[in-house]
Fold this sequence. Notes:
The protein is mainly α. It has 16 helices and no strands.
Amino acid sequence: xxxxxxxxxxxxxxxxxxxxxxxxxxxxxxxxxxxxxxxxxxxxxxxxxxxxxxxxxxxxxxxxxxxxxxxxxxxxxxxxxxxxxxxxxxxxxxxxxxxxxxxxxxxxxxxxxxxxxxxxxxxxxxxxxxxxxxxxxxxxxxxxxxxxxxxxxxxxxxxxxxxxxxxxxxxxxxxxxxxxxxxxxxxxxxxxxxxxxxxxxxxxxxxxxxxxxxxxxxxxxxxxxxxxxxxxxxxxxxxxxxxxxxxxxxxxxxxxxxxxxxxxxxxxxxxxxxxxxxxxxxxxxxxxxxxxxxxxxxxxxxxxxxxxxxxxxxxxxxxxxxxxxxxxxxxxxxxxxxxxxxxxxxxxxxxxxxxxxxxxxxxxxxxxxxxxxxxxxxxxxxxxxxxxxxxxxxxxxxxxxxxxxxxxxxxxxxxxxxxxxxxxxxxxxxxxxxxxxxxxxxxxxxxxxxxxx
Length: 453
């Protein structure tokens, strides 16, 4: 990235999409990534907290599923509603406010006195988490240099996994604090959220959104400021590459996503993410629970093994990060889906596997996970035009949360009734469907400018 900036520093008159990766871009990417960090942190820490919540409240299996899925249900609403509001009223306002839901209701969830309160508060905190998906990805994509956009968006979603690793470390530190350990685990997520809210104050509105709304002078001024912070001069030709076909001044509509020129993209972005999340969220939320069911596992060993898996996932993310802007998106996502499908089915076919063998397959699963795990998010931020970019991402996120809810709620019921194998085979079938959908419909946005209008 430093070489990229060094080469650009002597160049005048650059288009906005060709600007180097400056300190501002890195700061924006980090602050956006921290929203995904909070999702990974919260969704993972509840997986450990559930081990204590079950001992505290003795819930029925369906209530365990509701606790695990409540935040995801909130994310469905938050992404759908706030994604559309972000296209209507701007990226920056929502970017500053969406985490307020998370802070307030995370603390209230930690103080819950019964299962009903816990489920309701986790649903409400999920609204803030879901809202951050379309807001953060859209803002990052619209500021990112075209040839580094895939890398920066992968970095953003990679922080989900960083959040998962940190949450396991925090969980291990709190594991022996007594029966109220789950309360401290849940409350701990409010600390980074408050810091992120404070840091986001310095991020301006997206010039692409301002241009699409007809606020050309303001858009160009912000773009000039970003260029100057990179040590280059912004081109004035064709509105610095920001405008293209300027969108009419109208409110963003969900109906636009299903018009002839976008419907294939909408189906691909939404259904591909849906198929991935069916198995992904269920295995994340219940990883310690799944591992604890295996022969020879203990409470501590299941959490330690979960931490090892989450840490290993970072290896796969680093690989995707390094090659995504060279290899492209489509085949990385397709190969990941294929690997996930085959490993899930293999794990489901095994009869009473030993802890070591099952954990080994889980490691392979975790590595394959990072293709579709990062690129479903990246695709949703790249393939929609400016006027409905956040709406499209929000819709795709919402559909993916339907898949996540299905996986999270169904898994404990399947385990209790027919065993773990049926659930794992179901997840494998979903991933193979995701492979077919990617091969059939996925475009290749590598190196291409974002769609305006």
